[in-house]
Design goal:
Largest sheet of chain A: 6 strands, mixed
Distance between the termini of chain A: 41 Å
Shape of chain A: globular
Radius of gyration of chain B: 13 Å
Helix content of chain A: under 10%
Strand content of chain B: over 45%
Structural class of chain B: mainly beta
Radius of gyration of chain A: 13 Å
Largest interface: A-B, 27 and 29 residues
Number of strands of chain B: 11
Order of helices and strands of chain B: EEEEEEEEEEE
Largest sheet of chain B: 7 strands, mixed
Shape of chain B: globular
Order of helices and strands of chain A: EEEEEEEEEEE
Number of helices of chain A: 0
Oligomer: heterodimer
Helix content of chain B: under 10%
Number of strands of chain A: 11
Structural class of chain A: mainly beta
Chain lengths: 112, 115
């Protein structure tokens, strides 16, 4: 069964702090995506990770992929209020074409 | 910029009604998807289509059908709406095969309430 588990599901943090969101998946995959969703809005693509050891950074967010551990992390550095949103990871499986399996999402609230 | 639009942002329907949700993309993408989003469950795939007139079931197709008569348009149909279909519905599109790392582009979502 294809399963994607994110934790934590809810994260409240102070501005300026660092934290990591974890994304575990059950079956070998060749692609992993991170999305951001603001309240009432649609999903916005953040990162696409295609290979073991891939690391991508955009501003205060950095995503990495360890395909052997079936784990991706989204690291937040020196959080600011504007990062408050829900973050989803999603895993693609080659044998299922372009199907994505999503994690439940992590609600991030950054308090000033 | 890729644009994916959905016909309604909010919709209220009665149990038993037939409901049509429309999605249009303007980037000539081959693949289109319908998801529903529920709190704590993430996004779950209902149906997807990789070409005109082609469709594949996703994880939760029961109670839904789809239509793709033109490349740019993908419709989700609730044959007889039920209260457990109250949800946020998101459409997405994807160019090519997706294997070279393209990402899915999402529409703004339709929040459906079935009374």
């Amino acid at each position: 069964e294809l399963k994607v588990e994110q934790n934590p599901l809810f994260l409240s943090m102070q501005e300026g702090k660092n934290y990591t969101i974890y994304c575990n998946y059950s079956t070998t995959s060749d692609r992993l995506y991170w999305y951001r969703q603001d309240p009432g809005k649609s999903l916005e693509s953040l990162f696409v990770l295609l290979s073991n050891g891939a690391v991508k950074q955009e501003g205060r967010l950095m995503a990495s992929l360890d395909t052997k551990a079936r784990l991706s992390t989204l690291h937040i550095t020196a959080a600011v209020h504007d990062l408050s949103a829900t973050y989803f990871c999603a895993v693609a499986y080659m044998e299922y074409g372009n199907k994505l399996v999503f994690g439940a999402g992590t609600i991030l609230r950054v308090k000033s | 910029d890729v644009k994916v639009t959905q016909s309604s942002r909010y919709l209220v329907k009665r149990t038993g009604e037939k409901v049509f949700l429309e999605c249009v993309q303007d980037m000539d993408h081959e693949n289109m998807f319908w998801y529903r989003q529920d709190p704590g469950l993430g996004l779950r795939l209902i149906y997807f289509s990789y070409d005109v007139k082609m469709k594949e079931k996703g994880d939760i197709p029961e109670g839904y059908s789809v239509s793709r008569e033109k490349k740019e348009r993908f419709s989700l149909i609730l044959e007889s709406a039920s209260t457990n279909q109250t949800s946020m519905y998101l459409c997405a599109s994807l160019p090519g095969t997706g294997f070279s790392g393209e990402t899915q582009y999402f529409g703004p979502g339709t929040r459906l309430l079935v009374l």
